[in-house]
Write a structure and sequence with these properties.
By secondary structure, the chain is α/β, with parallel strands linked by helices. It contains six helices and nine strands. It has helices at 4-20, 27-35, 67-77, 94-103, 115-127, 165-168, and strands spanning 56-59, 62-64, 85-88, 108-112, 134-137, 150-155, 170-183, 186-194, 200-208. The structure holds S-adenosylmethionine.
Length: 222
Amino acid sequence: MVRPSDFAAARDRLVRELVAEGDIRSPRVQEAFIQVPREEFVRSGDRSAAYADVPLPIGEGQTISAPSMIAIMLEEARLAPGEKVLEIGTGSGYHAALLACLVGAENVTSIERIPALAVWGQENLARSGFGGVTVVQGDGSLGYPAGAPYDCILATAGSPRIPEPWPRQLAAQGRIVAPIGASRFGQDLVIARLRPAGSLEIRRGTPCAFVPLVGEQAWPSS
Ligand code: SAM
């Protein structure tokens, strides 16, 4: 049985590693990682592995991403307090909790395709003090027009291209941070910014390997 103080020490150690590796670069992202107990977002049998820098299975063939990958995405998103964020792929709810630390829980909407994960992710968020995050079950390849416009759309599943509905749901200067690639299991992290004329300025970041974004505007289900 791991004690709460052991989790806190493991969390501090992981954060120091992520800073040393250059994955965490800003004090705000560092503070968010300190605030969120990752052990509350993994399956009960995996709690002792919660602070290893690896993805872990969360059921339904899905994973909670490695902390270093999440840190890279959060730094690329450059979120300011009060900005509105749509996360595509709630999974465990961990990444949504970190987003809530950065912009405020009331400004985070997270959409999940698999009903059981949407329920589990919402439960994890509520139990950990992030119940103000809005979790929606649905196909995030279509975005979530009801909550638009967003300052940032951040996807945690990989798509063959930026789904066409997403840019239309961005606010002025809005950003998309998403794994994009021609393979179902290998992508580059793409950072896109909406220009005033409506087109996207696109930059390719680190290679990555996310589970596929399955939906009408992304990969087919089989
Ligand atoms: N952000 C999650 C976390 O912190 O645990 C990571 C989740 S996992 C890497 C990606 C998630 O995207 C999975 O839960 C998967 O079911 C979900 N997903 C895949 N396609 C989706 C879609 N079209 N809409 C919403 N969620 C989707």
